Hints:
The protein is built from 7 helices and 2 strands, in the order H-H-H-E-E-H-H-H-H. It is mainly alpha-helical. The protein has a domain at 6-85 and 128-145: Arc Repressor Mutant, subunit A. Strands 1-2 form a two-stranded antiparallel ribbon. A hairpin with a 5-residue loop joins strand 1 (53-56) and strand 2. The chain starts with 5 loop residues before the first helix and ends with a helix. InterPro entries: Tscrpt_reg_Rrf2 (IPR000944), WH-like_DNA-bd_sf (IPR036388), WH_DNA-bd_sf (IPR036390).
Amino acid sequence: MRKDSRLSRMLHVLIHMNQLDAPATSEKIASMLNTNPVVVRRTMAGLRDKGYVTSVKGHGGGWSLAMALSDITLLDIHNALGESSVFTIGLSDEHTSCPIEIAVNQAISDVLIEAEALLLERFREVTLDVLAAGFADYPLNQQASSGE
Length: 148
């Protein structure tokens, strides 16, 4: 089953962008994420539409943060990425008239709804500067040797 890693990948990029002295091109970000610049532009456009990043075209252009990391929460970025489900667990729909399937699906659904609400509430409480602070002690020479 494929995982949706867009949130962690964009958090990675935003924290890197905060460390840069110049805008990051789509190509540079794509290199960080081992993906295509078109995917980067499409994803970053959603963040730009919400006001978290800005973009400048042409020579010397690229993507920059539009606000301080302390003003952006995990929930903000999760929502900007399209509010995908945080869980990949699905309910069975092969026997919709079976009372056992109905009961099982209801029980699973209730737990997933409660768990997702708790997770999203926690996302609302964590700002990106907290993540960046945990990164601040990471030696810069190790970043370079790891290819970032």
